[in-house]
Design a protein that fits this description.
Four copies of one chain form a homotetramer. Chain A has a single domain, classed as Chorismate synthase, AroC fold. In chain A, helix 3 crosses helix 8 and helix 6 packs antiparallel against helix 8. The first copy, chain A, is of the alpha+beta class. Helix content of chain A is 26%, strand content 23%. Chains in contact: A-B, A-C, A-D, B-C, B-D, C-D. The interface between A and B is large, with 107 and 108 residues. Strand 11 of chain A pairs antiparallel with strand 11 of chain B.
Chain lengths: 366, 366, 366, 366
């Protein structure tokens, strides 16, 4: 299947940037879980465009649940969530019907869909489609929290400015990130990062960055040795988030330059509970969770919509031309993308847990 | 499914390091493709342990095809390939039945399989299982070559020594790598890399590295916008290869520090054929191929089997203990892993092409 | 996945009988296919409750397409179709929150969803959910017709009254069925069938029947020898339609009493085109289409909602009780179910064709 | 995927009638289950050709387990079982390289595989491939028995002679069937059935029949409302068994002629345990098990290999010709097919249980 992900817990997303509605169908989540519409709205707000560092397009992003919830709880059947598009300015996109924006999917969409794709605002390729993922993910994040599993993402770097990494106080850090409008661990890096974004915007340009995600409280023994390793299923989901071009678990690329004696995490036991003294492996060994925090970092490329003139092709006859993009665009998406990472990871982990422990597990009280 | 991957073209792998046989079932490959047993043997030889830089375990790795090939050609039905294990020294592994080797899957396997896993030599988690993947991949690589699609991987770094990247002469570079016993583009880095491996071995330690893979000739318009993006399906497969902890496409993490104006690849046309002037995106935009070379890099962690004493737990009662690994181990696997990368990627791409263009496409003459 | 079906072309359905909306997401259908909203409305009308032989609940069943269609054509991305519920009388269902209706899914839903299911009107188990399937199927039926493939279903029996079977004039018969409000081949059996339904209704009872489906023009060579045989994938879909309890292909159960010499269909050739002289196998041999019409018959059990007093259990404490159902119900569903069969089969066949010939095939002009 | 079935517990089958080996990979079965090689051999013996009522081809069918079993127990990783072909007479098949046997898959295989299929003895379409299914199924049947779930199939009809149906003494009947070499409930019908088979054989012809399968002890609440209904997943598997052309659950086609008041099964409770007074629904309501025995019947067409002259086409140029089949063939397969039904159903049910209750459930002691 194409726009669906997951096996026991699955999500299907739909919609286009300038269509009538976008949304998601979340299926297989255990029956009897509280659906907290306020929390969903809160999560949606974390993805919203605000201030000068985001696009001028402002969407209410009100999530309407039209199936799968009864008396405020999940029923176990498909939860359909729809979000109306309200602030489309489709007239901005005339020339973009045939001129491929560099760095965007316009050309590849044309090669796949033969010109029948909805090109307005990137259509089905738009980052806007992640709103459905965030809505579905909000239910997954809440369900995991009920089981003592916390997920959080911070902006590790933006425009070359770096945040510090997660500390031993992980659970509290994750809780704090959940309420932050610009998710960094070291608040002093926020202003310099925003400066970088503003500078890029003023220059008609854009910046990228890195996100770091941590999962606290995930049980050991979940994942598979081959093909459906925990890294594999997470990466499958994460590399489908627009702009993600790199992913590493634990020390990731840093491990390539280590010796085995540096990279191996020693096991230690306290009261029969096993932990590792370091966490170079990011909580996953042999594709299976070891009970330590799951840690991964993603590379987010700079937004491809820039206002500088660019060289491209006219897809009507595949000849050279130039393009100057107008309209409303994000000079950076990294601050909006972090909640997408949390949501995407939560959906994957719910699926893995349901496969491992059965479809009711997420709703069972410990 | 767990040990199976792919949809239209799929592979299932099985076996344990010290079991009777390992192997693979390759299903869905188009009927009528020549099966070149010499090429399969050649590919197997690229994965073999040789010299001082690999384990002393020496396996013939003779692939026996027991189904799915008739009169030297694929039939379209499952191709089963079995490889007998011959050089197991299971007695070396006594203590490892209950002491978890740091960096290995012993502890996580225990938490998943409750002690019933075959622990000998890592069992089903062993890198040895990749031999089945290489056997299946050999058929996929050959099928792709018939369609003008070439895949090659080189050792970008090993123990901190770096090779150069692929050049514009990509197709020829890939062909040359196919015959190399230590796959580097710049032959002068080979000796320093091997020195690093030998030094680690002499020190009872191990080294990691980076692999860089290129796919030449892959058609535009293949992949999906969501969930089954080309990056997603490749990453799903690649993160299931043991020791892979990082993956990036195109400029990957480097894109995080670029501006949009630097990262975007300009489109240009010559005679109606579109290309990009740079290839920061690694041949994939919006999850779909753009016809440029697909480029990705993987981080390979150092082999966790080292001879130094390590701290770990006794899994019989989860108490602290120490462990000194004996037996035969690889001080580095990066030179053996590169053919695994080629094989894994080829299987994914065959699947994607069959899904896009139909089950016969791979066997059709252009 | 649970409420999704298909691989290359897939459908996801959602909603409850008394919820806000029901609908479907149709994904993977080739780009560039005309979406004929009038035809969709026509297909929906064939499923509508009309006259005395159906429930008194009357729904407009207006299908609103909110994604995946642009300029009147499919884009290749998910087509989301929503239908608002308008004529729910939820107050009719008070006692049914805890008393299991015999023949319905109330008890099994309770055992699966632990009481959190939406019980109103059968919730997600309601036959009403097939409206989404019919909406999605309308696009599939139209796409198949463009390729010369016609699907039609008639009421082979109802309340013990039998229609004749399809004749050699199959294509025309299918076309005629498409416009019929009570789909029989022999018009003289219509009145006696309706009499049986009316008699059952007057008696507070219900009747079942048989449907016979034919597919004309389906190409040879589609299907798989194992697991995904054409019978297998069709049956998977068809046995998920509520009330279906039997399915046979070709002469089906009749073949059990034949000799091989009677059952085998002789092959004959005319101008290089192969056909069989008889079609006992229903167009499928070894799981693969042979180019002859695909024929299958389904058994539809009588509607379980009857007005007679029945013995059942109170699910609050699992004790014996009695139940007399009130509210609005269908004394027969067979005349409404036939378009569901057409729709379901069309979705399966589109998926099979896309897997076999590629994702663009359905939109290509012959 | 094509030759694989199942999600949490899956099976992949491979091989050809006259190839080197056939076999199966069983994946996802819980770790720690005893593997009883004697029971596997016993199950294989139930499928073997014996006496005059089966083919003269005699295979030892010795199952060799080459992975996934350690110290006599399942490890949780893929169990690969291989069976060598020993009694092939490939020379018998000369003419069959190009003449399509009526009722067989030769023509459809040709249309799918373009002549590259292994045609010898039906190749990958041969009923012989079910030997792998029986080997894998033996492990599944034993695992279910450990959980109190029993599966049995009897010959309900053969050549027009009928056995009685299952009685209330179901569990004991299933146990008795397990040791029978010709599985009927009423022993007096055995001789007349065998007479019918012998008579057909003497006439160069063949007979078909019906199988009836019962599952005792299956828990309530397993299955899905849509697409993966219990009937759907069972039918998907069962319709891939060669020669199956019909399938009905509970009273099946008989329900089509009933009134709702006759067809509905009343619920009754004893000590809080709910049962139904009748079992017209065959243990499944709304796609989900209700705790009653699961009952289904399959139609097995007569073996298509007959010795009478038949009309067919020469596939080299698609012209008319005649064919007289020589070689060794089964005049009936129904007595050999029943263990295939048990095996196939057991694999499906293990998968459903693992999806519902988690991957360890099958190995847990109650």
């Amino acid at each position: 299947m194409k726009n669906s992900f997951g096996s026991s817990v699955s999500v299907t997303i739909f919609g286009e940037s300038h269509g009538a509605m976008i949304g998601a169908v979340l299926d297989g989540i255990a029956p009897g879980i509280d659906v907290d519409e306020e929390f969903i709205a809160h999560q949606m707000s974390l993805r919203k465009a605000v201030g000068s560092i985001s696009t001028a397009r402002r969407e209410a992003d009100q999530v309407k649940i039209v199936s799968g919830v009864f008396n405020g709880k999940t029923t176990g059947t498909p939860i359909t969530m729809i979000i109306e598009n309200q602030d489309q300015h489709s007239k901005d996109y005339g020339e973009l019907a045939y001129k491929a924006r560099p760095g965007h999917a316009d050309y590849t969409a044309f090669m796949k869909y033969h010109g029948f794709q909805d090109f307005r605002g990137g259509g089905h390729f738009s980052g806007r489609i992640t709103a459905g993922l965030v809505a579905a993910g909000a239910i997954a994040i809440k369900a995991l929290k009920n089981k003592g599993i916390y997920i959080g993402t911070h902006i590790l770097s933006c425009g070359g400015v770096f945040d510090r990494s997660f500390s031993a106080d992980l659970k509290n850090e994750i809780v704090r990130l959940g309420d932050s409008d610009f998710a960094v661990l070291d608040e002093t890096v926020k202003a310099p990062m925003i400066e970088k974004i503003d500078a890029a915007r003023n220059d008609g340009d854009s910046v990228g960055g890195r996100l770091e995600t941590a999962v606290y409280g995930f049980p050991a023994g979940v994942g598979e040795p081959w093909f459906d390793t925990l890294e594999s299923v997470l990466s499958h989901m994460i590399f489908s988030i627009p702009a993600v071009k790199g992913l590493e678990f634990g020390d990731g690329f840093g491990l390539a330059d280590m010796k085995g004696s540096q990279a191996n995490d020693s096991f230690r036991s306290s009261d029969g509970n096993v932990h590792t003294e370091t966490n170079h492996s990011g909580g996953i060994l042999g594709g299976i969770s070891n009970g330590m925090p799951i840690i991964f970092r993603t590379a987010i490329k700079p937004t491809p919509s820039i206002y500088k003139e660019q060289q491209t092709v006219d897809m009507r006859d595949m000849t050279d031309t130039t393009l100057q993009i107008k309209g409303r665009h994000d000079p950076a998406i990294i601050h909006r993308a972090r909640v997408v990472l949390d949501s995407a990871a939560a959906l994957v982990l719910c699926d893995q847990l349901a496969l491992r422990f059965g479809t009711d597990w997420l709703a069972e009280t410990n």
